[in-house]
## 1
Amino acid sequence: MDVSNASRRTFIKQCVIGGVAVYSAPLLWEMSRANASIISPELAAQWQTQVSGQSKPKFRNDGIAKVTGQKVYGRDYRAMDMAGWPKQQGYAFILRAVDASHVYQGFSLDHLPASAKPYKVITAADLARDKVKLPEFYGDNMLLPEGQTADYLGHAVAILLFDSFPAFKQTKSLLQFDNTLLRFGEKTAFVSDTKDPYASWRLIRVEGENGAREDTYSPLHDGLFFPSVKHHKPVWSGDANAQGSVSERGLYYAGEIEKQIASAKADQQWQVLEREYRTQIIDPMMMEPEAFNGWFDASSQTFHTVITSQSPQDFQEMAVHMLSSGPLADKVKNLVVHSPYIGGGFGAKDHSIFPYYGVLATIYANGPVRLANDRFEQFQSGLKRHPFIMKSRLAVDKATLKIQALTSQMTVDGGGRVNFSPSVTSVGATAMQSIYYTPRNDIIATSYASRNPDAGSMRGYGTLQSMTAMEGMIHEMAAELNVDPFKLRAANVMESGQRNTQGAIPNGTLRYREMLDMAELDPVWQNRADNKARYEAKNPGMRYGVGFGIATKDYGTGAAAPSAAVRLSKDGKIILEIGFIEMGTGTQTSQAVVVSESLGSFAHEVKLAEIDIWDAMQLVQTDNPYIISQQRQDEMTANPRWTPVKAMASSASMSAYYQSHVTRIAADIIYRHGLWPAAVSIWNELYFNTPMGKTNLNHSRDGRWTDGKLTAMGFPPLSIDILAKRAHDLGLVVGVMGHAFNRWAWAEADFEIFGTKERIALDALALQYGEGDKYHGSADRKARMNSNGYHLIDRQAMSYPKAELNNAMVTYYAPCATLVEVAVNEGNGEVSLLSSHTWLEAGKVIVNELVEGQIQGGLAMGIGHALHEELPPFEAGAGNGTWNINRYKVPLARHVGVWSQRHTILPQLSETDPSRGIAEVVMIPVVSALVEAVYQATAVRFYELPMTAKKIKEAMA
Amino acid sequence: MSQSIKLTINNQAIGPIDVGDGTMMIEFLHEYLNLTGTKFGCGAGVCHACTVIVDDEQGMSEVVRTCINGVERFNGKRIRTVEGHAKQNAQGEITALSPVQQTFLEHFSFQCGWCTSGFVNESTALIERLERKPIAKDNVEQVIEDALGEHVCRCTGYVKYYAAMKDLILKTEGLTLS
């Protein structure tokens, strides 16, 4: 295929990295030759409907393709589907080590029948010879060299390439579970035991005396400090000095907290609870296992890929870097990345190492090659949720019931490669306090390498583990103090304006108390004693229990950088372009809906995973946004094209808040500077005695959309096609592109539009104007549309959030609470979920049905974490390649109380509420609610998850 | 070693095609026919994402998991996959969905959609069973549980699939006893 002649619709040039032009084709299925059947325009258009004059989505705009089995996922594609590829599909199979304690000594394939021989075997020797390297993010040893011990169980050893499916199938059947294939020699230490910790964090905070606004000590107030490492363990040693350096002061106040706990405990003033909690390794078990298809077209020097990734932008960059060394160095001029929809991710496809093995296979393949995990391979090699061990203490004043101190030492198993372990560890630490205010805290969290498969940014990102432990301590503390747990919560719930464990003030209104009040009044809670007596009398052998849990999940990374472009065609079609991808959460649908707030209609087309178009804003990124100094940031801000971060990866909890921010602003500018003046001009011209009087239509805020038409102050409603035509004819704003940056606050700047300066929460803005020249000399403006068809507006008075806000670590939260009633079978320990009620604060809800789906899906995932999903560590665990969902039990409908779920989405405070990231939070409180409900039913309190039926039965015995 | 396979899929005659021994039906669909609407989830017959409908000569049908059944089991049979339910016009465009597809769509039953093909086929077979043998309204929830209970969904938590099916069964004349 001649990339240079490809239409924009087919391939979109993203950027040039290291001399390689990167192209993407996010909506691959539209151009697929395999899709003989496409969706009729009339059917597709039905997704938008009108209810009471307002547009509502009747269904997801990607729904028809999915429910009819179209090729929309990366795994669906074969070479024959790809325009310009050879039709013959090749296949790749990875051999993996299931021994991480002996020296690997090689393997032989001599016993394979001739029909099953691979045409190529890629080993570490090839990589060393050809200088092929993993992207730095993933470490080294992409393939395990002979003579070394595997870094972890499931470490890839070789890639076998086949030119036909039957040969691939035959070999895989013979080799996949043959543990005698790889030869191992002498016993060695585990490689992971020789590695330093991936990361270690410490959050020490002491509130200001007498409730002062300023902390005595905290990460935000004083900064973070880090340990030295001895014998691969962190050492927090040094002088404790109240007037010393940040570390010396930190150690001083940590010591003070210790003394206060010991003293107040001895004096019987504080109740001190000390417990250890453990969580398990979790496999995300997203339904679509990872897959990759690739082909290097030597004639056009183009490297083609089809990926199943949540982070295609990062893949593009890292793949180019990987290709820059090795057999194809200087031979690849174009990289084409197809990133269709993904069949579930939950973080498992965010910065997974998997696609780079696909790249490696393609480098050595003689044609198109497909690498697709089966479920055993996915368990063996896919990213996992980090298991935590948390030794925690909670101190509560017996008289006031106020929490006085919280300490914790968290040990986090990061698995074989570092991946996102450092940030998961820090987020887990920051989440420990959950919804509770703690005046003193000392939370240490360290993540280590292990021989388990890699752990990554799986749903929850460390918070599920730590908040569940905190809620467990609240339950037990209430029991020890003999107070109602809601009373204990009420005494300690964090209020708006109070500081978190890092010393930062969370954004917005904290509605935890409101949520607690609602839950406490729920009949299931109020009547729990009577219900227990009644249920157990009626159901001999069953034990009844009620449990409640609450959590507040952070969302955001502290360096978010969404972009959006909204364009209006002359016939009134709205085209929205965004950087995010669709992971199933409904981003494509919800973002289409967001523009209707300003434009009265949903976006007619939403283009996902865009990057190249943002070149119009000419932004440059120079530094790591997390460690940049204030001085450096100030210097760089002087460059109007500089931004801390150009682009961000997609994740489920990010689109609602971050992507919507830019989409809303872009749509609003089109409304105020395009559609509104167009409407006023029509009303003035056709529906008023102009120029004998004034219409008084001076404020765009007076406009109202009803049934998709714009009206104001009684003037005739005008449809968007009429308005769009007028906007184009007048040379008004018909296209807006924006980029924003968020470090727990949005950057903002002045931008001049039609001669008026506006303060807008963006750091880059570019506009397109209609072709007419009747409005404020638009001919001149159009001449300025010279940046990829946009007029790049020079920002003024740029204000970025201060660099020290990095020390806040987290300030955006979405809360959720869950009440469950369960019945535990005395005979087999099985837990039946009789009912559940979930309360969620999602801010401004964009599409109610999508939020409900997140609630119900999150609840199910939390139930799995609490009761069903269990993977042992190490040799018996996923790395041995024998795990699948026949043994790893994921929750089914009968486990989630499918007919008896209730939920309450807290009403927004006003229509100006932001939409919050809520994809993950719902799975968290149900875990602690179930732990407590099982305790109330059985009098057995669990400190280690999951609470399988077997464990419950044994504990009750 | 290979075997010759001939069958009918979505009313289209397929084959004879030579297929390697040990080939699972889902591999035949994907690698030989490029019909990828049927999804691979676990490969162990647990998640049911790969379920298709097999029709017999008497107008009866059964649902079968294609990841644990060899292609030879389907030789000579009539198969329906998720690609075969919607109506298409002469240009091959999808113009109307089946009632099951429509109810899942309008209830926002799926998110990522990977499990959807299995739910569509299992539910379609259920509706056809109820057409032949209606049930009491009080049994609707139990019948849905029995039919869909082994299907795995990881995104949406089952509720909206079940609600969609309940709604469809109760509003479709002839599926329940009055």
## 2
Amino acid sequence: MFLPIWKKLKYMLLILVLSKEASVLKAAQISSESDKDWINQAIRFWTFTDPSIQIIALGAILIGINCGLMGGYVVSRRLSMFGDTLSHAVLPGIAVGFMFSQSKNEAVLMIGATLSGFLGVGIISLLKRHTKMKEDSAMGLVLSGFYALGICLITYLQQSPNGGTSGLESYLFGSLVGLSDRDLVPLCFCLSLIIICFILLNKELLLSGFDPSFARSVGLPVDILQFCIWILMAFCIVSSLQVIGVVLVSALLIIPASTAGLLTYRMSQILVYSGILGALSGIVGCFLSFMGERLPAGPVIVLCSTLLFLAVLFFSPARGILPSWFRTRRRGQRIRFENTLKACYQVLESRSFSSQSFPQTALAQRRGKSDAEIEKEIGVLIREGYATRQEFPTEQKSELPSETMVSLTPSGWEIASRMIRNHRLWELYLTKEASYAPDHVHDDAEKIEHVIGEKTVRQIERILDNPQRDPHGKPIPSQDDIDRGWLSPPLVADK
Amino acid sequence: MRVALPKPLEIHDLTVAYQQKPVLYGIDLEVEPGSLVGIIGPNGAGKSTLIKAIMGIMKSVDGYVKVFGDSSRKALTRVGYVPQRESVDWDFPVTAMDVVLMGRFGHIGWFKRISKRDRSFASECLEQMNMLPYANRQIGNLSGGQQQRVFLARALAQQSDLYLMDEPFEGVDAITEKAIVDLLKNLRNQGKTLMVVHHDLSTAKDYFDHLALLNLRLVAYGKTEDVFTHDLLQKTYGGKLTVLSEVGSRKLNEKQPTPEAL
Amino acid sequence: MLDFAEALLDPWSTREQVIWNLQIVFMGMMVSLSCGLVGCFVVVRRMALLGDAVSHGILPGIVTAYLITDSLSIGPVWIGACLAGLGCGASIEWLRTKTPLREDAAMGLTFTSFFALGIVLLSLEAGATHLDPACFLYGEIGLTPLSPKLELWGLPSGNQALWNMGVVCLTTMISVIVFYRFLLVTSFDCSLARSLGMPVIWIQYGLMLLLALVVVASFESVGVILVLAMMILPPVSSAFLFHRLPSILMCCLPLSIFYSVAGLQLAYSMNFPISASMALAGIVIFLPCCLLGPNGGVLTNSKKLKTRKSSRDLSAN
């Protein structure tokens, strides 16, 4: 009695193994054992002379483009997890479609899958509307429930006498090996459908996704458009399931589009970029899987797109992490010497601009720093060409060493007075327009002076009607003062 | 020499940003004990944000908040917070009584059982808000006013010294509104400090004895009769300062080393 | 009718069968109980999909732990899985806050990448060794009775797998009871938790750790995706029956017994996989709860609305 049950269980387990996502592991290994020379292999792949390679590469590219394009909408409408749910919810449909057609008939399976996907989506929205369940638990429920149902049905089918199941498995969990030119047809169909929809309905989709209530108010059929997105998404998922598998389809929907989202803000560009990125990861993943001994294609394609994502995240010139880290560092340096220059101005101002140079010790006093630190700061200024330094022997013969005098170059003078101008204008703006107390504005102006930018400064100047003095009564250098350069008459006259 | 008691609330140069846009800019505020403060300002002026920043729910970009002279998180144990109605998950499986008992958790001590005294105290708080008959209702099955009263009962049960309330008058019936106002004045008379976000200008004058006029920055803070003037209200409600918010967002985007004092 | 009774009794006809199947039922019960208890908090915090993400994301950790220790012993595998799960969670959090990605995209991106990495690692290495991806990836609840027998002080003391799951189940129950108040307040109202001085972030991490533990322990039995069903089904079904969290938590026990028994019966009569049938049994019990549940069921909803209105009238007085 013990043995039969054990056998039965083993059999069931075997089916379980075959029927679940594990098949990805075994299914999609394209490389042939005979040809070990991988340079030859690479040449064989990239010349595309072999018709089977042509089909595989074309399939991978098509899927990449499809999912990338669709993903643009999925991600921008925050439907990422919805894509995942939908890809699991199509499972029972495939099984039922197989039951009806009794064969691996693409059309019937696709219809079944689409219907079942829609049923899942419908159940989610019903649960959300009519019960107190939240979206996430509704989605989790549908995802796992439909998946369980699908597993049960497929197991059942595989046990039935006329279950020619090998085809069904490859349909379910995908492989690049089994890809035939017939399988390319739904992919092409899906791609053309997506492109036509996106071109015809570009602005409608954009509007209804961005602001549904406004779209409704201008008479757009928002629900129908939403429905269109569902259909396209279901087609896209179902046609790619055949090649990639349940979990990984949603990855291809999300990752290329997220990568594109890091590169640009504009919807049309996001679509183009994510299509390209999807195709790129498709073909590269396909190639790696072709080269590797046991590399399954689906996960490799996904990992390729993840690597692309990481590359963009770290290195993209505009918003990449490394470039912006360097920018922050450079900005930190700039702010440091801007502060030094500003202090130079203040030293000069405290001496009523009586001479062009000032002793380095006065700067040290002003900044409250040691001579060595100031020495270093002035060194930086000199290297950058903002200041010059001369040694003067002190007038009285004493034990003191010779006095070091510093004077600003014209460019150094310009930056210094610009910083002072920004600082004082901003203080004035905060006190006059935003009703801050005059003793509270200094700290803020300390930060703002470095970032405010010439345009805003002019704007503030206009708002304040070309002010002369800041809230503490100190003169604000005007643009003219800066243009005229060192010791312009009005500024000196002002003293 | 008299030692000055720490102020219930001290805010210095507080700047808070949400999605790269400043919502509050350089707020300075000190509240005396025993004041009933109304925070008013137009929509999107950062009223709720101010409360959330005090509670530490939203991180500040700049500046600090001190509660009873203490800026650490421990000070928050003396604060009772009544959240905005929308921010509560009303489908959460708890009853009115459970919610009020949550307010007692700080007094019970962690892993100890809820004593009879705590239960009866919670009932008293519910009774004070006229909500005892609904003690065993799930909170989603109460009307808007009743829900608000449950949360006020919880605040009572917390026995805090500083209360922060986010739009307690939002969507409640007239009777609840009256009950809330009575409660606020009652607490104020007990020496508690209350900060209440409010958006109805017509009642603000009667409900509060201090007002904070807020619009991105603190326009004015003081006794109601000093602050509730046409001029200041005009300033508060008269449009946004575009330069301020633009420059503020630039400041956020360009993270920089700490500035040096000159 | 007789056929039905026969089908019901089929798995219980001999002594060996009873012992064999009881072990499976017991395993299934513990799996769905611990999943359900954690799931209650996961669902009220609206993190159900995070549970899904974590259950996929721990795969590379398991594979790496296997590759390093070259054994399937449960300890290293747990540690690896928890590390991978934490890495997954940290990556989601980092992407969400530090990049323009939204939460859902961050989640989808992370867990699919982790899962793909796990599969690639597995297929790179496992071909040479005897690690059967199936027994780790996809549920072996039917094989529970075959796990090695444990001996304590020289006495045969039952099944290793059952003991492992039992420890996890007990840990879950104790943590939920001990930290109930923390979990309740942080789930319901984060700001109150702060003003009560609770370490909100640490409680969140603790819950995630518990989630990872439960997922690791149970996906050996029910597989990556069905672990989600075991987490979500009990709380959402019982939320239609009760309106207080303690009752909902208690309700997990009868539900989990039902899931495992009904799942086993269904699996026997239809030749389904046991884990999937357990999820189906869960769906079967969810439907009447959702439709007829006294607390917000679809068909009782209209009545509820009326009472809500009448209570509103009451309050006006």
